[in-house]
Design goal:
Structural class of chain A: alpha+beta
Oligomer: homotetramer
Radius of gyration of chain A: 19 Å
Helix content of chain A: 25-40%
Number of helices of chain A: 3
Largest interface: A-C, 41 and 41 residues
Strand order of the largest sheet of chain A: 3-7-6-5-4
Chain lengths: ~180, ~180, ~180, ~180
Amino acid sequence: MNSRHILVTLALAGTGGLASATVVNQSITEAEVLAAQRGWCQALVDISQTFEKSGQPAAKALAEKVIDGAYGYQMGAVLFKPTLTVAPQTFRTTRAGALAYFVGGDSNFPKDTGFALKGWTKCESKNAAVFIAGDSASTMGNVMITGKDGKVTTVDKTWKFVKDDAGKLRIVLHHSSLPFTGS
Amino acid sequence: MNSRHILVTLALAGTGGLASATVVNQSITEAEVLAAQRGWCQALVDISQTFEKSGQPAAKALAEKVIDGAYGYQMGAVLFKPTLTVAPQTFRTTRAGALAYFVGGDSNFPKDTGFALKGWTKCESKNAAVFIAGDSASTMGNVMITGKDGKVTTVDKTWKFVKDDAGKLRIVLHHSSLPFTGS
Amino acid sequence: MNSRHILVTLALAGTGGLASATVVNQSITEAEVLAAQRGWCQALVDISQTFEKSGQPAAKALAEKVIDGAYGYQMGAVLFKPTLTVAPQTFRTTRAGALAYFVGGDSNFPKDTGFALKGWTKCESKNAAVFIAGDSASTMGNVMITGKDGKVTTVDKTWKFVKDDAGKLRIVLHHSSLPFTGS
Amino acid sequence: MNSRHILVTLALAGTGGLASATVVNQSITEAEVLAAQRGWCQALVDISQTFEKSGQPAAKALAEKVIDGAYGYQMGAVLFKPTLTVAPQTFRTTRAGALAYFVGGDSNFPKDTGFALKGWTKCESKNAAVFIAGDSASTMGNVMITGKDGKVTTVDKTWKFVKDDAGKLRIVLHHSSLPFTGS
């Protein structure tokens, strides 16, 4: 058994041989969703700081760990539209495409300069809505990321999470975009 | 919107235009499962009492209401193995088969004498285990029903519930059996 | 029973009393997803054409019908980030917000001029990826819409669909954005 | 990626940079359900044959492998009511309880003599109904098992399966009972 499971054994008075009920609840909670969002934000800052201190190879190694731990690429694909990608490589449904977006350095994705290498110092998520149903939880809202110069970039962001067999939330859908400015 | 939805609007300080998060959570809770089990038990006693007081047609009318409100036959089928059915009509995957089991009087199910008409005065459920995951909640344990003479009949019972669009739990699987006695 | 259910009764030779198996399969199919996407596109063009021919009130009446039939607002909220909304009304988690976006005319959403009233003549969806799992299906890709002047606007679009009790796919998440242009 | 995923890449004519759609479909199919049922039956016969040829320790080792591969005990609990268990140990929500039921030899379950050691030579499943929805598939029907003497024992059986991260169906609910005989 693992962290996936909220397992409760309730003592029931007077049940004779059936003295207790085992309760397993795998539902995704709002607290788990908020923690996963904070984890994504922290990972972005961590990769940026690692790049500053230790260079791209170290940042890349960390990004691989983050992608493997927080996204669901091992499920076959992730529906990932990063903020700054351009056609014909807008959608990053493969792990390689996600990695290239975050840390660059992949000649198969020549326009990628490494979004996570841009010196981010802070990242916060503010949900407009959270929807939990069936086997997934979805969120929509803003993420505010702060650069070295203190300037805050706000993006519109949608995530869908599922819980894997180990009880960990994984991103299976991620659409990020710059706000429409009306011009 | 309806009772399905635990809808919470959280005031978030300092979020400017994004002043609150709408949270919709459709996950099935253990409390909902226990309430549905109590509801099933109460319905069994109610049908019995209605039969005693008002006869089979009234009991049948109530049973139809109970089946339509608590089971999922409108979804196409229910996996229902009642306690006392015999081959070749053991499994009651249709509404008509369930109704015949509970109140009898259907020539298509000639061996049915009406399980819910047997004067039950009390019914209790004791779970060995409750498992909530994805879009369903399943339970396994005993149900103890008390007859007019005070004798308690214990059955082994498994239920699977899903939540319908109106937020109501519905039984989509129900396997009931007399305990094996070792002989 | 309704269109939700792929219900198959298989004749099994030699099974005696258990002569057939009822099969109910509520899984979302890729064909259903593609049909729902085509339906969304057609509705956009239909609202535009209705506006041209019959004016805003008629277009609004049609848009209400489309929203009520194709989105999941009755579930409590929809995670909807339309292409052209601006802060602080970027996210349209309510039915009123969606309607205002499509046909304007709502003083509570003063910047909305009616996206569906812009004379669209054609709409096509091209998926980068489709992911079906559990109780939902998600898609990510481009939607190309053609204006009166023949100019094609391409947007990056993510949808998540669930199947309601009547067997109809409903949009519960919709994130649309103009492509990042690199500038 | 693994066997879980029906992954299809569709060539789409004339889509320019978006030349293909990745389709991942994790829905449980009826064919997978039938294969899992055949697998359970085969495992029962295999354990019996292993016991005949190689004794209880070998049969136990195989049973452990079968339980770990086909049931979901690692998820926290399985709702398992075997055919022949008696109170107060009717329900086998733990791996140890399942193993004791199949091969005996566990002093914590003194009444277990090893259901899978009884010389079964054949096992067949005939469904009354199969219901696939959300993240699970459920079946209800008969299983017919043939003993050394050629005598066939028929049981009423309900299974609920979910798909694990590796794409394998696992039994999370199993209720088996001898048919009510009307006496």
